[in-house]
Amino acid sequence: MPDRRLPALAAAGVLLLTACAPSSPDGPVDARPPGSPDARTTSSTVPRSTPTVSEDDISDQPTPAAPPSEVRPDPRWQFFSDDARWHRSPWFQGAHRIMIGFGCNPAPWYSPDLRCPDSQGFHHGIDVAMTCGTRLYAGLPGVVLDPSEPGSPGPAYGEAPFRIRVVDGTGTHDVLIGHASDVLVRPGDRLTAGEPIASASDSGAPDGCHLHFEVRSAGGSVDSAVDPAPWLQLRAR
């Protein structure tokens, strides 16, 4: 599932970003069948608390240019978002489309969730469609968490998911990065905004290469996930 910096960022924090369809506290069940791109609509009817982050609180971070994903579309992508815009973010290279947003959605690979209407499932992050090898960056300063710490993601997030803990005016949160490869960071690393951290891949993602970006409470399971949009800082191209 804006280009700004969260207020009162502390020196130590670690963000983690995730798998697509968590169905248990240890990780999502992400069994998505291949399919051709298909623009569909999705919306969440679940009330949720979202941190208030003003644009003045986040500084501009340069985003390296790269060809947008439409140049090399992945035939496995399926879009369940009504947002057809191309977005940039300090977290990734280039401009890309949202494949699946946060919350209730009609994607067929999620188990029905009691919070959602019409037997829809619940997606705990934001999936951004991007070709394999797209460079990922630390969009905010933080600390890389050790996989042994509470809240570590399961295998549905890929072979090398990791979390970055950040502290801001709303508290301490873990950013989960899922479906990553070529990971450049290690547990305990203190990251600065704009630092390369990994590449996007299809590890653990049968629906094609993309970034799964998820935000949880510090040390929390998938059940503590919140709308990650304020941290992802998307800005329409």
UniProtKB/TrEMBL annotation:
Q: Which CDD domains match?
A: M23_peptidase (cd12797)
Keyword Nucleus appears in the UniProt entry:
no
Residues annotated as region Disordered? 20-76
Any Pfam family the entry gives = Peptidase_M23
The positions making up the signal sequence are: 1-23
Ranges where the M23ase beta-sheet core domain occurs? 122-223
Molecular functions per Gene Ontology: metalloendopeptidase activity
Q: Where is the composition biased (Low complexity)?
A: 40-53
Superkingdom: Bacteria
Keywords noted in UniProt: Signal
Q: List, alphabetically, the InterPro entries matched.
A: Cell_wall_metabolism_enzyme, Dup_hybrid_motif, M23ase_b-sheet_dom
Check the record and name the PANTHER family matching this protein: MUREIN HYDROLASE ACTIVATOR ENVC, PEPTIDASE-RELATED
What name does UniProt use for this protein? M23 family metallopeptidase
Q: Which species is listed as the source? A: Nocardioides caeni
